[in-house]
Write a structure and sequence with these properties.
two-stranded antiparallel sheet, binds iron/sulfur cluster
Length: 240
Amino acid sequence: MAGSGKPAITIMEDTAKEKKEGYILVVEGPPSTSANGLFCTVGEKGERRVTVVERLVELAKGASAVVCIGQCTCFGGIPDAHPNPGGYKGVSEVLKAERIPTPVINIPGCPAHPDWFIGTVASILLYGLPKPEELDDYLRPKAYFGKLVHENCERRSYFDEGKFAKKFGDEGCLWELGCKGPVTYCHCPDSWWNSRSNWCVRAGNPCCGCTQPEFPDRFAPLYERLLDQRLPNVAQKGEE
Ligand code: SF4
């Protein structure tokens, strides 16, 4: 939305009132549920601040679909990392608790890739809402989240050979430096980033798993190998 402040709030409220045939609600940022939601508010009604949860409920009811953009919007992300004092939650969790049946489409990532978002919105405009079989268990479009990073990774041949980087800048697979690619579904190896300049693993940085619901708690510390994940041909810590 190009506007901000009152014009933006007015457009949002008018759209919800006038578009009886439905609209797509795009949400960016996680709803906060602690302190009566006052950690994050969006505009006011009279003197009263309106919480994100209240806005979400109000706008999601009449929407044809809710598209969540970014890891924290979809799953809570870094704001809901332990101990989560703000009570942050993913949008689908809040809508479920409020018994709002509007379909949700999750485009996670920290940040979400613009192509994944625009591609999803364009697909809705051209072909309608995705069919259930086109989304995975976490409501992510399989077109962008159907394959593991590890399946398409350009360092995969190093992994298969057992050649692992021991420090940043080394040639080799980044598994021992904390790569979460073997448990992370996303399109990064194909999409790349910044107008196809590069992507994390190509730049020598392990995949941090930012499109997975368990990010970041299960994946911390980011630069340490996952201890609870067995992989073929890789010994667990203590077994080497
Ligand atoms: Fe690529 Fe990471 Fe898999 Fe290694 S562990 S092949 S760096 S995705």
